[in-house]
Amino acid sequence: MSNPNINWAAIDANPKFQALHRKKTVFLWGLMIFSTVYYFLLPIGAAYFQELFKIKVWGVVNFGLLFALSEFVVAWVIAFLYSRKANAEFDTMAQEIINETKGA
Amino acid sequence: MNRLNKGVLSVAALCSSGAAIAGSGAVADEFKWMTFTVFGVIIAITMAITFWAARSTHTTSEFYAAGRSVSGIQNGWAIAGDYLSAASFLGIAGLISLYGYDGFMYSVGWLVAYITVLLVIAEPCRNIGKYTMGDILAFRNDPKKTKVVAALSTITVSTFYLTAQMVGGGVLIKTLIGIDYEISVIGVGVLMLAYVVFGGMKATTWVQITKAVLLVIASLILVFLVWSPYGFSLPAYLQAVVGDDKVVAQVAKLLGDSAAGMTKEELGQRFLEPGLFLKNPIDQISLGLALVLGTAGMPHILMRFFTVPTAQAARVSVIWAMGIIGGFYVLTLFLGTGAAMLVGSAKIASVDAGGNMAGPLLAQFLGGGENSMLGNFFLAFVAAVAFATIVAVVAGLVLAAASAMAHDIYVGVIRGEKATPKEQVVAARVSSVIVGVIAITVGILAKGQNVAHLVALAFAVAASSNLPAVFLTLYWKKCNTTGIILGMVVGSLTAIGLVMISPNMTYPKAVIASAKKVMEGEPAQAAKEAKPAVAASSFMCELFALEGCVKSEPAKAASLEKPAKPGAADKLALLNERIPALEAALLVADPAALKAAQDDLAKLKKDIAATEKAKTKAEEDIKKFDGQTTSIMGLEKPFFLLKNPGLISIPLGFLLVILGSIFTRDKRAEEMWDELYVRQNTGINSEQATAH
């Protein structure tokens, strides 16, 4: 199974691998930074923007409660976006590189 | 007693003698047989799973990683089963039932943590790793050195978490059904060891899946029953919650003096607004950091990704886990508020001050109440799920600690990777027994100890030590052995050290002062004027009790004059004096008046019981801490002011990995970078599933 003769440096230098690396880095860091900022808005808002959080929006349901619920939705949307992108693009790109390696 | 013995027989695996079943619990004695039957059925199912799993658990890959044959969806359920520990399943519903919005807000971080796991950890770990976190770090760093440090860190994190689970579980089972604490701990330990030693990762995985499915079913039924009377309308349901007298009373109690000028409507609405529980935003941000980064560094979570066949399956499993865990936390909003409205915070807190009984008591209420068959069946079911939860979580942790001990230290370092396959499996099983016995012993020794800080500590160490090391090994070309060792050692020691001097520890002076307040009463207080909030004199003063610091304090509303409060003994005498008059009132003929008199008497007796409980507790505290003035660290009061050290220890962990790597050179770490980076992104040469 294991193939000690794989030239890892060559794959690393392969433009296709470089393209995969770039796409993944930009996409993952984008999502990561967005989700972290969005998450920390909750404790910050609850501490320093209480007047906003207390505004009733839907019956007794206030902005703060909707914002907390939105954290769940945002987490699920990020999971969905990542999985769609990874299934459609990253996996295909990685498979091409694997095929080339095996063919070589 | 007869029924009881029958029940005991059905859980023979759990308890060795019927005489050990003593004391009371949330379940009334006449219904205990039902609880034991439900427990027995669930234990029987898990034993059947273990028996089945044991037949295909022979090699190391099968023992540690279930032969890498767990599907993505199965692993997703297992992660949820692993993660929804008693603390999150009972604890968060409890926090919501007592503090409303803040409890729900607290749950968010536990889900958001999985975004980090999904985006940066799960797939690379599957592609690079074999059985342990040490394998990932040893890929390009010095194998022996990093494996020792990784194993120590894994064992530390697992032991903290394990102790918290064992102690919490023992208390929980005692509160629910009255089994002695020691017996509960031994029962949990023995069962968990049976799963791990015979069935390895496969049995552990399926016990976790079973538990997660039961938990979700139980919660869905309860939420259906709570919400359906309101036509599944969120505003209509919450309107009923905030309009409830018990909820209003709880908010008024939490707000104390500042509730004086508020209308009933305002008080109820306050339950859905922030600030009833979480007071210090900096502490919360510190906790949030530890959760978001610590989950991805938890060894038992990392280990779950080695059980699936491919990186794609690892991805699928995190997405399922996020769906299940997030969905569950949304349900806890209903469980918690439902318990607050239907059961009442006063009753929940009287059974368990932390609110852990909110879910079980809600189940009992929805089934028809304390004296109904169905109510007690519901309670028994939820109690059994809670028990299965503890066992499943503990099994995962023991497996993680045992793999570090056997695979990293024994096979990797002591035997220098030269152990035969058979020897490796024996080492794994022996290590599991060692860790299991340690867990049981520590669990029993820690009886009655304050262990709440251990969960926070486990996450903080994972976030300050494991995550920086794994993350930078995977993503930073210059990262090397010196950096990893420096970062992990300093990161974990800082986290532990800061917690030791934090408000989490017990400070005898404060305990004695509050116990004396109970015993001796409080003098009358003059009316106070409102005070504006005070900002700390510098950011460092928010974190440390330094000399010359002005501490930050929240604004205080004006308070009215308060009369003196009597001491516990005087209060008891006063309450007892009222009994004869109320008993005399029972002799009236008018049914309505009789009912009122009965209610009054019941309320008075409850008051007396609560006062006696508080008095005993205060007496015990005074005796226990007599003559002590300082915490085990020799401090009279906390020096570090946050409960969560993450804000300092996490950046420090990262910084030291970076500094250590920049200032030293490590040829192997540089040479292996290309291979590591290609493999983590493509999965070439990753560990394959074994055929069965």
Question: How would you describe this structure in keywords?
Answer:
heterodimer; A: 104 residues; mainly alpha; two-stranded antiparallel sheet; 4 helices; 82% helix; B: 692 residues; 29 helices
Secondary structure elements and pairings:
The complex is a heterodimer of chains A (104) and B (692).
Chain A: H1 8-13, H2 15-48, H3 50-53, E1 56-58, E2 61-62, H4 63-103
Helix pairs in contact in A: 2-4
Chain B: H1 2-10, H2 32-54, H3 60-65, H4 72-83, H5 86-99, H6 101-128, H7 133-138, H8 143-177, H9 181-227, H10 234-243, H11 245-255, H12 264-270, H13 281-294, H14 299-304, H15 311-342, H16 345-351, H17 358-367, H18 373-414, H19 421-445, H20 452-475, H21 481-500, H22 508-520, H23 539-543, H24 568-577, H25 579-585, H26 591-624, H27 646-662, H28 667-671, H29 673-682
Helix pairs in contact in B: 1-2, 2-9, 2-18, 4-9, 4-15, 5-6, 5-15, 6-13, 6-15, 6-29, 8-9, 8-18, 8-19, 8-20, 8-21, 9-15, 9-18, 9-19, 10-15, 11-12, 13-20, 13-27, 15-17, 17-18, 18-19, 20-21, 20-27, 21-27, 22-26, 24-26, 25-26
Describe the protein in words:
The complex is a heterodimer of chains A (about 100) and B (about 700). Chain A has about 100 residues and is mainly alpha-helical. Chain A has four helices and two strands. Chain A has helices at about 10-15, 15-50, 50-55, 65-104; strands at about 55-60, 60. Chain A has a two-stranded antiparallel ribbon with strand order 1-2. In chain A, helix 2 (about 15-50) packs antiparallel against helix 4 (about 65-105). Chain A is elongated. Chain A starts with 7 loop residues before the first helix and ends with a helix. Chain B is an all-alpha fold and about 700 residues long. Chain B is built from 29 helices and no strands. Chain B has helices spanning about 1-10, 30-55, 60-65, 70-85, 85-100, 100-130, 135-140, 145-175, 180-225, 235-245, 245-255, 265-270, 280-295, 300-305, 310-340, 345-350, 360-365, 375-415, 420-445, 450-475, 480-500, 510-520, 540-545, 570-575, 580-585, 590-625, 645-660, 665-670, 675-680. In chain B, helix 8 (about 145-175) runs antiparallel to helix 20 (about 450-475). Chain B is globular, with a radius of gyration of 27 Å. The chains are: A mainly alpha (about 100), B mainly alpha (about 700). The interface between A and B is large, with 54 and 52 residues.
